[in-house]
Amino acid sequence: MVKEYQINSDTQLWNDFIKGNQDAFQVIYSNHVHSLYKFGCHFTSDEELVKDCIHDLFVDLAKYRFGLGTTNNIKLYLFKSLKRKIIKSLERKSNFESFDKENIPFIYINSAEEELVEEESEKSRYIQLNSAIEALSPRQKEAIYLKIVSGLSYEELARVMHVNYQSARNLVFRGLEKLRETFPRTTVLFFLYRNRH
């Protein structure tokens, strides 16, 4: 039973999975599928495409597990893999001859999340913050999401976004500075942290 499966670290869980332990695979899936879905939906409004990419990701993991290397951070591994799959899917769907991987749209706050805000005054601030976030570059939005909402370190963020450590810090810092021009730091962080998985 999955409930009885004991894990001490991502490294142990991953190693058990690549050795063929089905419970380990189920734990990885249940621990990460929700955050993967939320992350994927920031790249495209096509929810079915995101679901298909997540499905394909776990099918590939199961199929090729014996050839996978080790990892001590499963979330990071899955985020990188899902992003790559979504980009490939968007490339295939694109009507353009070239697909600009550096400027992939990043939808920070969607309308469904906005609807969850009930108080009118809070909803007004939420809409204003969303407008401010939309003024950021796609890379700044992704960096802030990965750092603050997903809780990745700068090193991990850099690996997901394929940039160096200093560039990762700069993307977050400059994005937050732009937001703070409109909102106090506490307001910005409150609305960003409320979406954490």
Shape: globular
Can you name the CATH architecture of the largest domain? Orthogonal Bundle
Can you tell me the CATH topology of the largest domain? Rna Polymerase Sigma Factor, Chain: A
Number of helices: 10
**Beginning-to-end CA distance, first to last residue:** 25 Å
Let me know the number of strands.
0
Determine the fraction of residues in helical runs and give it as a percent range: 55-70%
Q: For the record, what is the CATH homologous superfamily label of the largest domain? A: RNA polymerase sigma factor, region 2, helix turn helix motif
Largest sheet composition: none
Mean pLDDT: 82
Whole-number count of domains: 2
Order of helices and strands: HHHHHHHHHH
As residue ranges, the low-confidence spans are 110-117
Radius of gyration: 18 Å
CATH class category name of the largest domain: Mainly Alpha
Question: What structural category arises from helix and sheet content?
Answer: mainly alpha
Q: Which percent band covers the strand fraction? A: under 5%
